[in-house]
C-alpha cells in the first residue's frame, strides 16, 4: 500500500490511547497482588505487558491478516499535499491502517471528501472533528 508508515510500539504514554476495561474482583486482586509483590510497577504496567504478550503470541496470525487486508502497520500520516495529489489525479485513497492514521491539521473537510474514498483504521484515527465528520460515511 502506498504511503509511509513507521512502527509505533514502545512510544511514550503521550502517544497512546486511553481505554477502559472491566475486570472481576478476583482478577483485579491478582493484578494488585503481583504489583504489591514487585512483579509490575502498577496495574497499567501489568495490563500493557499482558497485551504485548498476547499480541506476540498471535504474531504470525496477525502478520498474515495484515498482509491479506493490505494494511499499513504502525503510523500513517496523510498530508495535505498527498491528498491534493490524489484529488488532482482523480484517484481517491483507500486508507487502511493498523495503528495510528493521522490526517494533517491543514486538511479541509472538502479536500478529505474529494481525495479519500475509504478510511479503515484498527487503532486510532487522528483528524480534526470536521474532517472526521466529513468522512463519517467512509469509515469502517
Automatic annotation (TrEMBL):
<dbReference type="InterPro" id="IPR041088">
    <property type="entry name" value="RHH_8"/>
</dbReference>
<dbReference type="Pfam" id="PF17723">
    <property type="entry name" value="RHH_8"/>
</dbReference>
<dbReference type="InterPro" id="IPR010985">
    <property type="entry name" value="Ribbon_hlx_hlx"/>
</dbReference>
<protein>
    <submittedName>
        <fullName>CopG family transcriptional regulator</fullName>
    </submittedName>
</protein>
